[in-house]
Amino acid sequence: MQQARHQGKLRSLEEANHRFLGEVRLGVAIAAMVMILIDWSSSAPYAQFGILLPYGVYSAVLMLRARDERAGAGLEHAHWVDAACFLLVVGSSSGITSKWFLFLLFPVLVASLESGLRRGVIAAVACALLLACVGALRAWLDPGVRFGDLSLWPVAVLLLMGLLVARWGNFDFTLRRRLAFLNDLNTLASPRHNLDQAMKALSEMLRAFHRADSCIVVMADGQSDGYLLWEANAEPRETRMHGEPISPELAEPLLGSSPELAMVYSRRRRFWQRTVVGAYDRMSLELRASERAALEQLANLLETDSFITMPVYFGHRPIGRLYATSRRFRYVEPDLRFLQQVIGQAALVVENIQLLDRLASQVATQERQRISRDLHDGTIQPYIGLKLGLEALRRQVPDGTSLAVEVDDLARMAGEGIAELRRYVAGLREQGPRAARESLLVAVRQQAEKFTEFYGIDVKVVADSDVRLKEAMFHEVMNIVREGLANIRRHTSAQRALINLRDEGARLVLEFINDRAPDRNATQVFFPRSLNERAMELGGRVDVEHRDDGRTKVAVAIPV
């Protein structure tokens, strides 16, 4: 979801850029035609105007299309059309020495503004080479012109200015991408995000921005002596959705022996390239001494040819390190500068999330203690009185009678209810989060068996795999299970029911399906408002399907 939001923001900036370039393209076409009208005595004005007039219409169409959100898909090669048009104009004029060769800078600007430096440099070199070819072709076709008389200074000027324009366009292109990234970085501070969600979103955003194969974050676990590892990969199947606990021994090679250093490494892959090795101070990014062998060993550990890494600090305390790795792109020192700004801002966001978690945990602990006292003093006591009353009544009923059996069942149910309430109160009084003592699947099956025993409704539990949740979420899910089963008993006369437990990675789905009631009219059409409120508090939703055969399916989906 976070990646889609980031792509949406970047797409909106690209659409604004398409609209701007569409307007400039039309302005360039109009200016070129006005130049021909003013200087009509120039060579071949009809041919030049005949080329530029369709180009003007083409530019107007592109400008109108740029207002369409889907227009970007067809504009990535528009700069080649621009280059072809102006090369034709150059060829129909007095040759490469004419004033028209300067218009070839426009496709270079378009390419760099839309796709960055690499595409801009390719466009600049291609336009310079094609301009030289146009000059050679004109000399070959014109017997009055000799190859030795050709002046190549326009080609050199176009190449030099084209590289400068490509660099300028790349600067604007990079700023747009950084603006979109920083805008989405602020969304990580949402109160709905926990640490897992924030780190997963951050690692995926950084991976996409740096066009990396993977982004790895290693951070100290605040609740243990170990570490947590998040990894976002270009392959979604290999992405770790939650922080994976790792031991200090496994984390030590990734954290490095110098926690204050930011590092960059790019292995030589072409004969014209050099191996980039650098270690920099995390604050000033001043060059520090580095060991090439250690960085090469780290690259082999990460199974990559290029990486950048920056330490993560809270205040003056190092807590982890972030890596971006790639086999396709070479990272250099300037890539560290923006990563330094991102890590500084992201550290504040993560610190705020952890602070909110601690405050919420303290408030929840106080509220649990208050509720446990109210339950102990208010709710449990009448149950105890009921159980004592049933036991007194049982002593007055002769053994072996049906009434004795029913009183024994009621006394046992009251005793189990008291025991469950006491376990619930004891759980509320415990301080701090802990892992659930039993798996969710086992707990749901035990609840289903108890429900079947008490109310005679046969409940079957189906699950592909077990699900383990943190304590708070575990209790919330169990409350949903109890509420769902209670709805089946209250609102239907079904004799059988099914609970389908499904883990879909980012969310947990619980489906309550009651069998067709013996009396079809006994099933009431209802919407479980209480269940829906519980799901909405957890950021989920409830869907109800009333089938024609009398069955009802209530599906509860909550994020985990």
How would you describe what is shown here?
- By secondary structure, the protein is of the alpha+beta class.
- It folds into three domains: 181 residues, no CATH class; 163 residues, Beta-Lactamase (2-Layer Sandwich), CATH 3.30.450; 125 residues, Histidine kinase-like ATPase, C-terminal domain (Heat Shock Protein 90, 2-Layer Sandwich).
- The strands form two sheets. An eight-stranded antiparallel sheet has the order 3-2-1-8-7-4-5-6, sandwiched between helices. Strands 9-10-11-13-12 form a five-stranded mixed sheet, covered by helices on one side.
- Helix 3 runs antiparallel to helix 4 and helix 10 packs antiparallel against helix 11.
- The longest helix has 63 residues.
- The two termini are 14 Å apart.
Mean pLDDT over all positions? 80
**How large, in whole angstroms, is the Cα Rg?**
35 Å
Helix fraction by DSSP (H/I, runs of at least 4): 55-70%
Enumerate how many helices there are, as a single number: 14
Shape: elongated
Provide a compact summary of the structure:
The protein is an alpha+beta fold and 560 residues long. The chain is built from 14 helices and 13 strands.
What topology does this entry show?
Blueprint: H1 2-38, H2 45-65, H3 78-92, H4 105-115, H5 117-141, H6 153-185, H7 195-209, E1 214-220, E2 227-233, E3 244-246, H8 248-255, E4 261-266, E5 276-281, E6 287-288, H9 292-302, E7 306-314, E8 317-326, H10 333-395, H11 402-429, H12 440-455, E9 458-463, H13 471-491, E10 496-503, E11 507-514, H14 529-537, E12 541-546, E13 552-559
Parallel strand pairs: 9-10
Antiparallel strand pairs: 1-2, 1-8, 2-3, 4-5, 4-7, 5-6, 7-8, 10-11, 11-13, 12-13
Helix pairs in contact: 1-2, 1-4, 1-6, 2-3, 3-4, 3-5, 4-5, 4-6, 5-6, 6-7, 7-10, 10-11, 12-13, 13-14
